[in-house]
Amino acid sequence: MIDKLIAGIRQKKAPVVVGLDPALAMIPPYILEHAFREFGQTLEGVGEAIFVFNKGIIDAVCDLIPAVKPQIAMYEQFGLPGMAAYKRTIDYAHEKDLVVIGDIKRGDIGSTSEAYARGHLGKVRIGDAVFAPFDEDIATVNPYLGTDGVEPFVKLCREEKKGIFVLVKTSNPSSGEFQDQLVDGHPLYELVAEKVDSWGKEAMGQSGYSRVGAVIGATYPRMGQELRDKMPHALILVPGYGAQGGKGADLAPYFQESGMGAIVNSSRGIIAAYKQELYAAYGPEGYADASRAAVLAMLADIRPAAGMV
Amino acid sequence: MIDKLIAGIRQKKAPVVVGLDPALAMIPPYILEHAFREFGQTLEGVGEAIFVFNKGIIDAVCDLIPAVKPQIAMYEQFGLPGMAAYKRTIDYAHEKDLVVIGDIKRGDIGSTSEAYARGHLGKVRIGDAVFAPFDEDIATVNPYLGTDGVEPFVKLCREEKKGIFVLVKTSNPSSGEFQDQLVDGHPLYELVAEKVDSWGKEAMGQSGYSRVGAVIGATYPRMGQELRDKMPHALILVPGYGAQGGKGADLAPYFQESGMGAIVNSSRGIIAAYKQELYAAYGPEGYADASRAAVLAMLADIRPAAGMV
After folding, report:
1. Looking at CA atoms only, how far is residue B175 from chain A in angstroms?
2. Is 80 exceeded by the pLDDT of residue B116?
């Protein structure tokens, strides 16, 4: 799936992923009202509204981008109906031939990580039947528990050609608290990066990139350069663009040759574009068109930084 | 909820939690067959079987222990029907007045952790209605993203009197890869422990323990002692007893005065007891009674180590 993602980046000239992280306050009132008329002011109503909202955005931007990244927490917060909206979103994105990056940040001891890996990237066998429960193409993984917590995901990268992005250096303000601590003179995130490189060697894709990639926040471009060099085969998922403060011009260090090697995520900046002054003319009914305009603006900002002409 | 947990430990003389981590292979065939007759060999069938299996164990052991700890990965692997079984298990354990520790190991950037915290420990407001989507009492939290990723959970510890256990030193073989790395001469897990102590000061319970506790694997008793001293107000959740190799006598360092200060988890050792030679006479139909016998044996092993008479 890393190969498919890279082909999509190349074909659409778009090293960009749209984060489908819908908060209740982002959903236009007309969508909420419609869903509440059918399901009441319930978790089911919100689940329906989230899916309808996402569908509009996917329809509006699917020809421009190779992938979407639903953040599972934004669905999980609404319980089972929220999780159902997550699954419907994955399935609909697949219908539109988009790569789905499940931003799940799971990670546990070996046997437990195996269950997560199976449920999200793999298959479960029940009697004679086989099911792919969530069926994302790629998942984000938390490395704090070490190799045995990551290995079950790497195994599915090898066997099912799925992909993962391991958290190396996150985009949030306090990411440095543990990740930047010096170990033998080098920050911990470098040690994680070395592991990503070594895990990745066991799961190389056809494209020259590994199926094991890394997350490095857009808010730390200097680190981006160092880490890029430490993980030459890793595709880098870059969150933190836009709402979290990162700018296109800062992102050049994350890229390798022409637009390859990194994929930049924007969530709020795209899906809630209609709430920005710049796109206010679209209005709530035009939220999906506003998202499309915001993707086009993001592409215009990112392509030069990526050296993509 | 940490207060309720501590009262339960005291009253039942049981610093013990049963991990409800059902793998398909643990569920007695008669339960699976019954569920499959109703729902087919489907994810729904497995979800039903998991719940029935858990219910039997909860009924058999609820008078002996203060809490259960469902490991969400074991449910999530079966998709939405698995998550529904997770929620039914939480609700049923609450009916039996057990504290529910959701072993979810979530952790993300601030705004995303907020969504996780709300969905698992908090409430969401939809119009005039308020819902508690998953409604665990306590959750496990991954600290890799630093304070802003943990703070939303701590906030609910303060405001809703919920509890968390932060991963400090996990029980798995490769936990040392990152957690043991020396930072200024001290292992990283000590730095995490210091943070747990400082987060915990903002959320003290009535019992003298903080609502912010720590996870320290049973497989590292020497570290247990050091960390116990660094976090005097933290209740310690100790996984890794039994199947993962920890023994009662090794656990004395995790405890403070008479049976207080720690709670030891056993999962496979209890819920799959009927598969052990020792309890084989119970047979698959007697799996719940076998679990009860295994809890009694565990209590006999743990109470002396905990100094509980």
Report:
1. 5
2. yes
The mean per-residue pLDDT over the stretch B151-163 comes to: 97
B219 pLDDT higher than 90: no
Residue A105 is among the residues annotated as catalytic for this protein? yes
In chain A, which residues have their Cβ closer than 8 Å to the Cβ of B126? Answer: 24, 41-43, 45-46
The answer for A 132-151 residues in CB contact with B (under 8 A) is 133-134, 142-149
Confidence of residue B245 (pLDDT cuts 50, 70, 90): low
Which residue is closest to A117 within chain B, CA to CA?
Answer: B77
Torsion over CA of B75, B81, B86 and B90, rounded to 10 degrees?
-170
CB A59: neighbour CB atoms within 10 A? 14
Query: Going from the N-terminus, what domains does chain B have, and what CATH number goes with each?
Result: 2-17+63-73+100-305 (3.20.20.70)
Return the residue of A nearest to B191 by Cα: A178
Length of chain A: 309
Q: Whole-angstrom Cα distance, residue A20 to residue A70? A: 4
The pair of three-digit structure tokens given for residue A142, joined into one six-digit string: 């938390």
Does the pLDDT of residue B258 top 80, yes or no?
no
Q: How far is A39 from chain B (nearest CA, A)?
A: 12
DSSP 8-state secondary structure symbol assigned to residue A246: B
Q: Is the pTM of this model over 0.95?
A: yes
Residue type, B28: P
C-alpha to C-alpha distance for B212 and B201, rounded to whole angstroms:
8
CA A308 to chain centre: 21
